[in-house]
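just leaving the lab so this will be short. what follows is a protein written twice so to speak, once as letters and once as structure tokens for the fold. can you read through it and tell me how you think this chain folds. thanks a lot i owe you, the record is right below.

___
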Amino acid sequence: MTPQTEIFVNLERLVALANGALYWPARETLIVSDLHFEKGSHFAMKGVFLPPYDTRATLTRVAAMIRELKPKTVISLGDAFHDGGSEARMEEQDARLLEAMVASVRWLWILGNHDPAPPARFGGDVEGAMLVGRLFFRHEAAAYHERGEISGHFHPVARVRAETRLIRRRCFATDGERLIMPAMGAYAGGLNILDSAYDGIFRGALTAWMLGETGLYPFAADRLLPDSGAQRRKVG
């Protein structure tokens, strides 16, 4: 069973998973963000060669969660495809796995900046953003305060000191009113939660839930550290 913890956003009980996904039990809904399929092949076209298995690794994780949780709905919060040519570069085995996953549930693609028009081949419904009960799903956090907003886009990571070493990991970032999800893509990278890009998003006390091998670990804002060379900023 995937390690998990409860997180409440706008009074809704959500289950954060240590692999970076979010599950909403009341709606039997699995939420994933920033899958970035075919990012590795995108870099290969530019002469940067990485092991070409990122799409399969990401698909395998999502497929495992669907088998474990048996959701009725899957919401992908944008940037599932790294660019407009991702479908053409995808291995046929991977494309068929994605088709089968999308067909097995109600699948909702939220549009992202990398994939403003997801490939039609894979099916599913497409939305720019959507409200479901007390939660609002979109790719990038709104400039205005949207209570109950669940978003992705920034690929949040947290950096902390744990005893004698520094740890930097992907994280869920939330103040209980809004939540930003970590990227799930194998090559997605991450932006420190203390970066100025997050300014104004969180009004309440921020908690960064860092992803670990055996669980998720909460750190308050005063425990967070900027990346080397960056100035510490106040968040929340």
